[in-house]
Amino acid sequence: MKKMFLVLAVFVLITLALNGAAYSMWCDSVFFTGQITTWSGGGGTGACIEIQKTLYGSFTDPKTGINYYNTTNLIRIGSNSGITSMGEIGCTPPTNFPTRFKICINVTNCGPTDLTDVVVTDRLENQFTDYGCANKSDPTDKVSWVYVPNPSGFKKSYLTWEIGDLASGESASLCFWIVTTQNPVGFYEPTSANKNYTVNLGAKVEAVSPVGNLTAQTDGIVLEIGDFVMPNIAVILTNLPFSTPWESDHIEP
C-alpha cells in the first residue's frame, strides 16, 4: 500500500512539473532523521590519508650502458645464448649492465586532522634493487633499506620511509633510483623479452590519527617487455611514467 502511494505521489509531481507547477516542490530542502555519513576524499571531521606511486624510465642507453638524463623505451636484455650485440652466434656472451629506473612515492594527508607516526613500506621484486640517492620532500624523513637473500640467489629490497608527522593538507614525496639486478649466473635482468616483470607489490602507508589508525596501499607496478628490436635489446611496452591510482583510507568519528 505504501509503495502504491509513493508511485502515485511521484506521478502527480511529474505531471505538475510538466505544467510548471511543481518546480518549488522539487527544489525544496529535504530533511532526514537519523545519522548520515558522507565522504568524498576530504572534508568531514575525521581523518584521511592517500598514497600514490610512479615509475619513470628507462634512463640507460641499451647499447652502451651510459645513463641518460632523458628516458628511452628500450631496455637491455641479458642473455647467455652467446649472441653478441653484433648478432653473431657462438661468440662470447655480450657484456651486460643494469638498466636504471626511478620511483616516486607521494603521500597526502587528505583529512582535517593532523597525523602522526606516518610510515611507508615497500618491497622490490627479485629483478630490481635500489640505487640509493633518495630525494625527500622533508630532510627530517628517515629512509632505510633492508636486503634479504632467498634460495634462488636473488635478494629482496625492503624500504622503510619514516615520514613522522603530517599536518592536515600536507604532502610528502620520496624519489629514488632502482636498477635491474644480476642473476646468480651473472647476467643482468631482465633475461627474456615478451614477458611481464613485477617491479613491486605496492607501497603501503600507515598513520595514527586522533580518531584511529589509517592504512592504505597502492597497486603493484608491472613492467611489460615486448619483442626484440635488435639483439639483446627489447622495447618497453608499459607507457612510462606509469602511476598507480591514488589509494586512500579514511575514518569518520
Count of structural domains: 1
The parts where pLDDT drops under 50 for at least 5 residues are 1-43, 80-93
Helix content: under 10%
The CATH fourth-level homologous superfamily = Mu homology domain, subdomain B
End-to-end Cα distance: 38 Å
Q: Please give the oligomerization state of what you see.
A: single chain
The third-level CATH topology is Immunoglobulin-like
Mean pLDDT: 80
Structural class per helix/strand content?
Answer: mainly beta
Which shape, going by the Cα principal axes? elongated
Biggest beta sheet summary:
7 strands, antiparallel
If helices are DSSP runs of H or I spanning 4 or more residues, what is the number of helices? 2
CATH class: Mainly Beta
Strand content: 35-45%
What's the CATH architecture name?
Sandwich
List how many beta strands DSSP finds: 16
SSE order in H/E notation? HHEEEEEEEEEEEEEEEE
Give the radius of gyration.
27 Å
Question: Can you offer a commentary on this structure?
Answer:
- It is elongated and about 60 Å long.
- Helix content is 9%, strand content 42%.
- With 253 residues, it is mainly beta.
- Strands 1, 3, 5, 6, 9, 15 and 16 form a seven-stranded antiparallel beta sheet that branches.
- The chain has one domain: Immunoglobulin-like, CATH 2.60.40.1170.
- It contains two helices and 16 strands.
- The model is unreliable at 1-43 and 80-93 (pLDDT under 50).
